[in-house]
Amino acid sequence: MAQQQPPLDQQLDQPLQQSAQPPREDMLSCVTALEAALLPCLPARELQAIDRSPHPSHQIDVERHARDFMEAAKKLQLYFNNLQREDQPTKAELLRMEIATMEEELKTKNELIEKHERLIQGWRKELKDQLVKHNTELDRV
Predict the structure, then answer these.
(1) How many CB atoms lie within 10 A of CB 124?
(2) From CA 6, how far away is CA 32, in angstroms rounded?
(3) Burial per residue of 93-122, b for 16 or more beta-carbon CB atoms within 10 angstroms, e otherwise
(4) Exposed, middle or buried: residue 68 (CB in 10 Å: 0-12, 13-18, 19+)?
């Protein structure tokens, strides 16, 4: 606890303000800030001893570390919520995807219709040929 770390707000705000960083680096910097805020809170026995300590500076130190950790956790949560929102397609994108799906379905159905029309035309030709054949047979008889 004797180490002096830069203020948590500086640690967390810098990565979030720099939009040039790739998302992975943003996440890593948020996690690093969260870890930096958590590390002073980890020695539980020491904290319990300080917690019971009558010195008000020790109480403030524990409260500051807990507050720093909670702020870092909130910023990390906001970061992940923003990522989640970015991953969700907009209404316009959803409509484009739906239109593309419908166009593909329409294309498939048109191809199927053309295939069946060709089959029907083939059958009509065969039936005409058979009709002509039967008519010539009847004419001979």
Answers:
(1) 10
(2) 13
(3) eeeeeeeeeeeeeeeeeeeeeeeeeeeeee
(4) buried
Average pLDDT over residues 17-22: 48
CA distance linking residue 52 with residue 59, whole number of Å? 8
pLDDT digits (tens, 9 = 90+) for 85-133: 777 788 898 999 999 999 999 999 999 999 999 999 999 999 999 999 9
The per-residue pLDDT for 55 is: 60
Contact 64, 1 (CB under 8 A): no
Average pLDDT for 35-44? 64
How confident is the model at residue 52, as a pLDDT?
A: 57
Of 125, 104, 106, 102, the C-alpha closest to 114 is 106
15 close to 26: Cβ distance less than 8 angstroms:
yes
CA 78 to each of CA 56, 75, 100: distance values in angstroms, whole numbers, following the listed order: 33, 5, 33
